[in-house]
Amino acid sequence: MQTKSHRPLIIGLGLLAAATGIAAAIWLSNAGTSVANECPARADAAASIDAVAIGELAALMPSSQWRDFADLAFIDADGNDRTLADFAGKKLLVNFWATWCAPCREEMPDLDALQSRYGGDDFEVVAISLDMGSDGPTAARLFLDEIGADNLALYADPSYKVFERLRNEAVTLGLPATVLLDGAACEISVLQGPAHWDSEDGNRVIEALLEI
Fold first, then answer.
1. With contact defined as beta carbons under 8 Å apart, do 187 and 60 qualify?
2. Which residue in 95, 148, 157, 205 is deepest, having the highest Cβ count within 10 Å?
3. What's the whole-model pTM score?
C-alpha cells in the first residue's frame, strides 16, 4: 500500500506593496479575520477522503482544524468582489497559485481538466491567482489563455492578503496550496504543494468529496 509523504514546498516571494482600490478592499476583508471561524467537526468526511488519497494525492492531509473559509475575499474577472460564500451548496477545490510559481503553472492544466470533468451545480474548482499589484489579474488571465484553460474562471487577490491569512492560520507556508471544502465552505482536506489532479487518484478524491 502506498503511504503518504510530504511534497516539497514552494516558498512565496517577498511581499510587494498592495494594489489600491479593489485590492485594498480585499486586504481589509481578509486582514480582518486573523483566525478563521470554526466549522462543526467532520472527522468522518475527512477520513473518507483520506482513505482514497494515495499515489498522486498521497500528500493530501485530512483537516483537524475545521476552518470556515466562507468569508475569504477575492475578485472575479470583472473586478467584482467575491467570497467563497458565493458558492454555497457546492463542494470546492480552492487552489492558490501565481504565474511566477513553476509548480503552479504545471498544475493549472490538470485543474482545468478537473473543472471540465466535474464542474457544475455540485462542484467547482476555484483557482485564485496571487499575482500581486494592479497588473496581477492581467498576468493570470494571459497565462490561462496561453495554456488554453478555458474551463477555469479567473479569480484573483492582487493584494496577497489571502495568502497572508493562510500563512497566519497555519494552513500553508508556500505555493501552490489547495483546500477541499464542503458545501458550507468548511475545510475538509489540505494539500501543501502540487499534485497531478487529472489522474485516477485525483478523480477518486473528487468523487469522494462529492459523496460527503
1. no
2. 157
3. 0.83
